[in-house]
Design a protein that fits this description.
homodimer; about 160 residues; mainly alpha; Arc Repressor Mutant, subunit A; two-stranded antiparallel ribbon; 2 strands; elongated; DNA-binding; DNA-binding transcription factor activity (chains A, B); WH-like_DNA-bd_sf (chains A, B); WH_DNA-bd_sf (chains A, B)
Chain lengths: ~160, ~160
DNA sequence: GCAATTCCGGACATCTATTGTCCAGGTTGT
DNA sequence: ACAACCTGGACAATAGATGTCCGGAATTGC
């Protein structure tokens, strides 16, 4: 999986803690010392997927497009990593002299088994929201939200 | 995910239908017109993982190391693709001036959420055996097992 | 013992996807 | 008008996946 997913989720948490205000890419990148131009690509992808809203111009930047309870990890992963399955059946069963045209019309059982597993994965991701992850962080590290807010205020 | 996984599972099915007999890489590759040397790498990995047993020398080759009911898709995927998680937390939360050493000792909530989803995926894969997939194929294509056996007999 | 067959694993080449940079253009606040 | 900021495309660098080749060891049949 794309490393940008990690950047994206962390950035979503930060944006959620910050609130309404828009934050430019450079600020979000500086927080974790990430390459700004590349992080920007991930944020653009999130904006295209309507996870983030973007605002051009001075005082512009990104903010969450909806409340964190309405953003699932699946939304973020799909935006960054695409929604193609990890296992893609290339139908090798159709290759070779032993292959039988009648067989191709039936679905590939291996593909079906893999898709079933991936579906379980997607369901888990879709079942966890950004708000859930925020709550987990706040439980083990109650100081984090304030710390984040202050850092982004100070360096505004 | 590695394309070799598809080759590996198909080959396991074929070996299961063939039975006790060992089959050399070249035969298994010819069945799907796959590059033999590269398929051999996947089979080696399966042998290291004790999914297949290998026999050197003339009349040698590969066969299943255990009955297909005892080989899960997770076994095969882990052998070929490795058991590193798709999402790997690089701890970017530790980077940047705002990071707090006290936070690092607590597990990363994002990592935990991702691992939870991957666990569901692994559980699904571990719940499906090669025998299960064989049964699915045989239900929609009853002729396949015999066809496979004959092809490997004829070209022996 | 010898030759043929086959697995084993490392070295290497090639191709593709990921990661990262840069720039020219558009939008917006002051 | 100017500066801050996003957008998207082009491009380079790197890493990983894919594929080939070869020397060595094990095993079989003669």
């Amino acid at each position: 999986m794309n490393e940008g997913v990690e950047w994206a989720v962390h950035s979503c948490l930060n944006l959620a803690w910050i609130g309404e205000r828009t934050v430019p890419t450079a600020r979000l990148a500086a927080f974790y010392e990430l390459p700004a131009a590349y992080l920007n690509k991930q944020l653009q992808a999130l904006a295209r997927a309507d996870v983030l809203a973007s605002v051009s111009g001075p005082r512009g930047g990104f903010r969450l497009a909806r409340p964190p309870e309405k953003i699932t990890l699946m939304d973020v992963v799909a935006a960054i990593d695409g929604d193609e399955p990890a296992f893609r059946c290339t139908e090798i069963r159709q290759r070779g002299s032993a292959s039988d045209p009648a067989t191709y019309s039936k679905p590939c059982a291996i593909d079906a088994a893999m898709r079933k597993a991936e579906l379980a994965w997607r369901r888990e991701l879709a079942g966890q929201t950004v708000a859930d992850v925020m709550a987990t962080v706040e439980r083990s590290n109650p100081g984090v939200p304030d710390k984040v807010r202050r850092w982004f205020d100070d360096t505004r």
